Structures are given as C-alpha cells and as structure tokens.
Amino acid sequence: MNEFELIRRYFDRAPDRALLGVGDDCAMLRPNAGLELALTTDMLVEGRHFAAGADARSLGHKSLAVNLSDLAAMGAAPRWALLALGLPAADAKWVEQFAAGFFALAERHGVELIGGDTTRSPLLTISITAIGELPAGVALYRSAAQAGDDIWVSGELGGAALALRRPEIAEAKRRLDWPEPRVELGERLRGLARSAIDVSDGLAGDLAHIAERSRVGAVVEYERIPRPAVFKSLDAALARECLLSGGDDYELVFTALPSRRDAVAAAAASAGVAVTRIGRIEAGSALRFVDRDGAAVDSAFASFDHFLS
Amino acid sequence: MNEFELIRRYFDRAPDRALLGVGDDCAMLRPNAGLELALTTDMLVEGRHFAAGADARSLGHKSLAVNLSDLAAMGAAPRWALLALGLPAADAKWVEQFAAGFFALAERHGVELIGGDTTRSPLLTISITAIGELPAGVALYRSAAQAGDDIWVSGELGGAALALRRPEIAEAKRRLDWPEPRVELGERLRGLARSAIDVSDGLAGDLAHIAERSRVGAVVEYERIPRPAVFKSLDAALARECLLSGGDDYELVFTALPSRRDAVAAAAASAGVAVTRIGRIEAGSALRFVDRDGAAVDSAFASFDHFLS
Fold it and tell me: What is the layout of strands, in order, in the sheet containing B217-221?
C-alpha cells in the first residue's frame, strides 16, 4: 500500500464542519462569526517522548491528547486537527491502530481531522496541530494571574512521571500512555478562572510560566498537591520529584479569585473532574513550595527541559 | 541555552495580526469576518527531504516555502504559521540561521509565526502548519477541472529533480534549496483558474491528482513543458524523468477556460511569473503525454511516492 492509499484508507474522512478536508492542497474552514480561534502544535518523537515499539493505539490517543490539553488550558472547544506523520515504513496495521486511537479521542471531543502530511522517516515522528474555538475575550491566558488568586489543579499529578521510573505500576502507566485532556473543565473555566496552563513540563516549571508571564510569585502547600494513592508508599525524594518536576500529566493548573471557590467547585463537578486548591498567587516573583507550617520544602528540582539532558 | 531561551531569542516576536503569539498554551486569532481559512501542514525530515548538514538558512526558507506553496495552490493569502522543530542539539547558531531564512520569507509574504514546539530529536525534523485567508467561495480546488480547460504551469519544471542527480549545476541546486512559492500568482488566479495544485510530487503525479479528483483526463504536449536552458544538453530519458516525475519545483499547475487566456496572461504578468499553456483537460480518465504530432511520449514513470522506495 503506498502513501496515498494509506491516507485514503485510514485518514480520509468527509468533514462535517469544515468546507474541505484531507486530499487537496489545503483544508478549508469557514470560522464562526464572532468566535476566536486557538491554535497549538506539538511534536512527539520516538525515543524521546515514547519508546520504540510503543503501542500504536495509545500513540494515536496521546499525540492528539497533548494538543487538546493545550486547547483546554485556553478554555477553547476543540474543533479541527492536522496530522503530520513520519513513518519508518508503510505499515498498514500500525497506521490502522494509530488511527483507531486518534479517532476514538477525536470523536469524543468533536474534532475533525482536516489535513496532514505523511512521509517516511527512520524515526517515528508525530506532529499535530489542533484548532479550537471560543467566544471573544474569554480565553485563559498565562499572563492574567493576580496576587491573591487561589491556585487550583485538576485531577492528580505525578503519575506519568512515576511510570517512567516504575513502569510496573499499572495505574501510573495508564496516566503516561492515556492522558485525559481536561477539555470540558477548560471550557467551563472561561470567565471563571483568571489564568491557566496545562501541566506538561511539571508543576514547578508550568507554574513558573504563569508567574513569569503574569509578573507574580506563587506559594504552593506541598502536601495539598493531589497524587495517586500509590505515592503513600514512595520514597519522599522520588515523590517530590514526580510531583514537582514530573511532566506529562496534562492536568490543568489555574488561578481564580477566592470569591469564586464555590463556582470553581461547581464547574469541576459539572465537568466530572476533581479539583484541588493547592496555594495562592503572591506579589513578587518567587515560586515557593512550603509544608503545613509554611516552612520551605526542599525543591532542588528543575522542570522538564527538552535540552537539559 | 535551554529550550525556552532558544525560543525566546529567535522565535518569540510580538504578533501584529494575531491576538496572542508564541509563549502561551495556544496562539489566538480573530478571523476576519466573511473570509475562509486555508490550512496546510508539511513535515521535512533529515535524510529524506534534505541531507544531514544542509544549510540552516535554506532549510528555514524551504520548510516555510513548501507550505506557502500549498496556500498558493488554493489561492489563499498567507497569514500565520506554527513551527514544530525536532533538533539534535540546542545549537544557537543553527537556530539563528534557520530563523533568518524562515523570517526573511515570512516577512516577504506577511506571515506571522504565532506558535510552535521545540524538542530534541536525533534527526532534524521540521513540521510547519501554515494558515491563509481568502474570500468565501473562490478557493482553487483540485476537484473543479472540466473537460476543455487549458492546462497551465508557472515558471519551469525539472530543476529541483535535476539537482538531486547533478548537484554541481548551480541553477538547478538553487531551485531545490530555495523554491519560490507562487503566492501572488495564486491570489491572482482566484475566480480565474478553475482548479490548481502545486508541483511537489512531479507533474505527472500532481496532474493525476487533479484528474482523479475532477473525474477527468488530461493530455499534455511534452515539448511545451517549460524547463531550464540546461535541459537542452541532457540525456532525453533523464530530462523526461525530471520533467514528469521530478518533485520539489513548487510551481503551480492550474486549469482555466480557453476564453480566459488573455486574463491568465495578464494575471501572470502582474505577479511577475511566466506561465505556459501545456495541454488541456479531456473527458475520460487517462493522463497522456504526447509529442507535437500527438503520438504518445514514453512515460514509464511514477510520481514521487514517499513509500515506494
């Protein structure tokens, strides 16, 4: 099967909300009047973001999920995606499984695949661009946090990072391979949260992005950070590393006025996602992790940086 | 210099026509009311689309050019781009040169870089998504050719393919490394051409895409295909292979009513690009290359297929 046949068989689905999908020089859209568009792109590379031989279906899921997570962190409703695939071989079975994982998540969130590119590459490489819509003026920017805001996080952190060290823990492995983008929560936080980011580089690093862009500081009470039950049995240093520096959880970290606590809780309940208040935004520029008594927690950590290692 | 510093130094430019550019979870756009959006994505991989050690500035140019060429083939005006880069190392000098080539072309066509992703990859990998705008209903679809249409091509074909065989020919090498997307011509062909495609896979293969999508056939007079002067001295079989199967020229092939010949010539003159009439669309489904007398030219060729070799 050649490139064109592979694409046609597995990826060429007639678009519904787009004017033109896969198969021409470009995809064509007619944006809805008055809405803004959010756009994001992420590249996943074999040996870097996943191991050679990783399950194709989970890769199809995850490569779209990390992009939908970026849309969720803006409060955008996912609409369309473009997929560039570098494949070591024209392996129809692999493509079929990848497509199954991709489309299962896409359909759950109303995402249409409208374009892409397929090429041969010695290393499996997946690059997706996702596009979402939202009403004008309500997007959740990293730069909008203010001193006094509560800091919230969805779900639990640390599971994906733990899976990299302890792949035998099924619960952690599932977090790494099948992240769940917090799309509904992101949409419900529009006009409610003040700023948001998704945890892809680790809580410390991602919170630092908010702090830097918003020109504020932040204090987080370490014990409040929600974590999987298995963390109780972990070495304290490993737990801390996973919770503060572990990427790949794709939970949302967001800030909101203390007066909106009940509304945040209601939004999270509607979205079916737990949220936990872990700290507050402060004046200044320091990012501090403290224990129950306010004493500094050892945080000699760095966030995940693709070029550090 | 780490990932965030590299991005900030070379790619983080304040957007003008976008609401939000590089540095948040997503870029944000407010589309112009009544316009349609054209979106395209292309991935370039080291060892496949360019040699290891290829000039960084020309890669910055070419990786954007191939995407702008897709926009031109729809008749869209380029507006925005997202860039995903997989880099073997955080090489600031390389990134600086790449950015110089990228932005020189981007600025010439009014393209804003609004987002991206940088990661480490053992193989240099470049994946760009480009977005253009155009008035509703005038995009040049592959599926709109009709029997009786003239077939036109811009510029000259075969140069890029020749460079792969004979890299010492400077004129050909320049065509391969510094393709010029026919952006202005594409915009001027709106409402004038009936269908269009850019020549990325070879004339035969790309014309076959139009024929297939439009459910028509085509006949091309081989000697009319415009080619660089150096082709006069080439072996006939090599010339034929480069002209019919050679990709990477990024010229436009388009069809238009014979009654619009003067208008096509005027549009091309305004855009400063030569165009040549090379054949016509026919009923049926055959794609034929003929000599001056209508006899079939040996065309035992295949278009470039990323998975054939």
Answer: B195-198, B252-256, B150-154, B275-282, B217-221, B287-290
Confidence at A307, pLDDT banded by 50, 70, 90: very low
For A155-206, the DSSP string reads S-SSHHHHHHH-TT-HHHHHHHHS----HHHHHHTTTT-SEEEE-SS-HHHH
A191 torsion bin: left (phi>0), alpha (psi -120 to 50), beta (else) = left
**Contact residues, chain B, for A26 at CB < 8 Å:** 38-40, 70-71, 73-74, 76, 132, 139
Distance from CA of B223 to the nearest CA of A (A): 27
Min Cα–Cα distance to chain B from A86, Å = 8
The answer to whether residue B142 scores a pLDDT higher than 60 is: yes
Report the alpha-carbon distance of residue B279 to residue B290 in Å, rounded: 9
- Tokens representing A248? 């790949």
Question: What is the helix (H) or strand (E) element at residue A241, kind and residue range?
Answer: helix A236-245
Interface of A with B in 49-88 (CB under 8 A): 49, 70-71, 73-74, 76, 80, 82-87
The answer, yes or no, to whether residue B14 has pLDDT greater than 90, is no
The tens digit of pLDDT for each residue in A211-237 reads: 999 999 999 999 999 999 999 999 999
Closest CA to A200 of A113, A72, A29: A72
What six digits make up the tokens of B222? 């081989």
What is the per-residue pLDDT for B128? 97
Higher pLDDT pick, A138 / B2: A138
**CB distance from A137 to chain B under 8 Å?**
no
| A151/chain B closest Cα distance in angstroms | 17
> Using N-to-C axis directions, what is the helix angle for B170-177 and B56-74, rounded to 10°?
70
* 3-class secondary structure per residue, B166-205: CCCCHHHHHHHHCCCCCHHHHHHCCCCCCEEEECCCCHHH
Instruction: Tell whether B263 is within 8 A of chain A (Cβ).
Output: no
Helices and strands, number each (H, E), in chain B:
9, 11
Q: Which residue of B has its CA nearest to A129?
A: B129
% of chain A residues with pLDDT over 70: 95
Read off φ and ψ for residue A159, nearest 5 degrees.
Answer: -65, -45
* Residue located via tokens 């998704």: A198
* Lowest mean pLDDT segment, chosen from A1-10, A26-35, A85-94, A192-201: A1-10
Using CA atoms, how far residue A118 sits from A132, A153, B62, B172, B178, in Å, is 23, 37, 18, 26, 22
> Which pair of structure tokens corresponds to residue A28?
């064509």
Contacts of B170 (CB under 8 A, 6+ apart): none
**Predicted-complex ipTM score:** 0.90
Contacts of B21 in chain A (CB under 8 A): none
Chain B: residue whose CA lies nearest to A80? B39
User: CA-to-CA distance for B91 and A132, rounded, in angstroms?
Assistant: 33
Q: Is the pLDDT of residue B7 over 80?
A: no
Task: Answer whether B24 touches A (CB < 8 Å).
Answer: yes
Residue pair A64/A81 in contact by the 8 Å Cβ criterion: yes
CB contact under 8 A, A25 and B136: no
Q: Does residue B255 contact residue B210 with C-beta atoms inside 8 Å? A: yes
- The Cα B148–Cα B125 span in angstroms is 42
With CA atoms as reference, report the closest residue to B219 among B203, B232, B235, B231. Answer: B203
Sheet holding B77-87, edge to edge: A27-29, B35-45, B125-135, B77-87, B112-120
User: Closest approach of chain A CAs to the CA of B56, in angstroms?
Assistant: 19
Please check whether residue B183 is in contact with residue B68, taking contact to mean a CB–CB distance below 8 angstroms: yes
